[in-house]
Amino acid sequence: MKKHRLLIVYLAVYVLVNLLFLARFPVVHSDETWLSGLSRNMLQQGSLAVTEPFFDLKPRFPHAIKSVFHLLQMPFLQVFGYNAFAFRLLSLLGGAAALWVFYFVVLRASGQKPLAFAACVLLSLDVQFIQAAHFARAEILVLLGMLLCVYLLLGTGRFAHLWAGVVTGVCIGLHPNSFLVAGLCGGLLVAACIRDKRFHWRRILGYVGVVAAFAAFFVALSFWFDPQFPAHYLAYGDEFAVSSGLLAKLGEVIPYLQRLFFRVTGTYNLPDIRFQLVLFGVVLAAAVALQRWVPQLSALLWGLLGMAAAMTLVGRFSQPYVIFYFPLCYLMLALLLGYSWPRRAAVAVGGLAVAVGLMAAVQIVPVATQPAQYDRYIEEIATVVPQDAKTIGNLNAGYHFTNGALLDVRNLSYLRQSGLSLAQYVETRGVEYLIISDELYALYEKRPYWNGVYGNIHYLQQLDELLENHCTLVHSFVDNQYGVRVAEWQNTARDFTVRIYHYDGG
């Protein structure tokens, strides 16, 4: 540890600084309340075989995939309470661990300790990495697993492929996007075969066998939770078009990159990463041209290809997944600079880290230093709605409510399939309050564009009648951040009023 004292000090300071704005950047997303809400329900019910209490009409079925992630969230809930900070702390610690591993990956690939430290600082100051390390989703933990696999497979350990299989298998329990880790490892194993001019069938079969064993475990556990697991899980995937044909999936690659470049992100607040995307394009072109001369570049290119192929085959082009490409691209940049300017590479990477850090600060500081908007949003709701009151509202308000009290407004899209009217739903669920934002009407105006995310808002006329005839408006406030979930509508000239109604009965 003494050899890496500077790294330890840096990471300790890094964590402490990030704690100052952990709950403020990025803005709290309903994905976070979704995942942490399920973790809370699992903990209180004493079982992993439960579904989200806030979805009682939207079809949900239990499965074991992501169970490891929920188990990791539970201690943070028990120690720090049910709030955004608690669950984001897990991500921040996972991010620090990922930086630790990334340092040793660069050191193993380059053999240059100053370069490895500079590259670690560069990744740590990237705004996309900071956001992933704050976001209470599983991407940063999967990224940690990915970097562990790279470290193992770039080495010469006899059982490295088996340990990489174990890491990949554990990642299955973190999130379905572990398929990207498998694609990366597949590319690195193929690269080893090309490098050695022979097929390492034992390594490949060993890796596949270990991953298959873990996959079989999680699938068997999922069958135990839900005997119709395959059909239900595939039906859920249809919501994200993952069952479309290969040509259709290939056709999504360029639009995906365009959405990242122009920050067309749906509900996610994607930082400005245009500089990184252009830089990575240059790095990839240089890596392809110089792979014969720079050790490890060929393997990393195959790894990236494997990961990109996995994403395309599955067809899940999610904006948060872009973080998986950042460490490998920064690693290739470090190797290229280390080859071109071995004595000055660390200085060059350090200078780039300063530039990237300044660009990150420009995006983070305005959000991190403003009044706590999420706290204000929750306080406005808390003025009239008790924590345990049965309420229909936006899931992003979940940190205010006790387990089972909040029903997400997306349930209402399934009224027809359930054979219920809105009035019947409200009565049978014992609803006391409805939290309705102007966003609902904006989404209705844009139908069916947002139907894939928020469902068909066919119930709006029923809702208006219910609010007018059977409800009393008890509070309203304008919130252009949390009163609207579509990122491109947030904090624009258009105001979004959130209205809270008390249901007086039928």
Give the strand order of the largest sheet, numbering strands 1, 2, ... along the chain: 2-1-3-5-4
% residues in beta strands: 5-15%
Overall pLDDT metric: 94
Looking at the structure, what is the overall shape?
Answer: globular
Q: What does the largest sheet look like?
A: 5 strands, mixed
Q: By helix and strand content, what is the structural category?
A: mainly alpha
Task: Give the termini distance in whole angstroms.
Answer: 68 Å
Number of helices: 23
Please estimate the helix content. 55-70%
Describe it.
- The chain has 506 residues and is mostly helical.
- It is 61% helix and 5% strand.
- It contains 23 helices and five strands.
- The protein has a five-stranded mixed β-sheet with strand order 2-1-3-5-4.
- Helix 5 (113-124) runs antiparallel to helix 16, helix 5 (113-124) runs parallel beside helix 17 (345-368) and helix 14 packs across helix 16 (326-340).
- The longest helix is centred in the N-terminal third of the chain and has 27 residues, at 84-110.
- The protein is globular and about 75 Å long.
- The relative contact order is 0.12.
- The model has no long low-confidence stretch (mean pLDDT 94).
Indicate the topology.
Layout: H1 5-19, H2 30-45, H3 67-80, H4 84-110, H5 113-124, H6 127-134, H7 139-153, H8 160-172, H9 178-196, H10 201-225, H11 229-238, H12 246-250, H13 253-262, H14 274-290, H15 297-314, H16 326-340, H17 345-368, H18 373-382, E1 391-393, E2 406-408, H19 415-418, H20 422-429, E3 433-437, H21 439-445, H22 451-454, H23 460-470, E4 471-478, E5 497-503
Helix pairs in contact: 1-4, 2-3, 3-4, 4-5, 4-6, 4-7, 4-16, 5-16, 5-17, 7-8, 7-9, 8-9, 8-10, 9-15, 14-16, 16-17
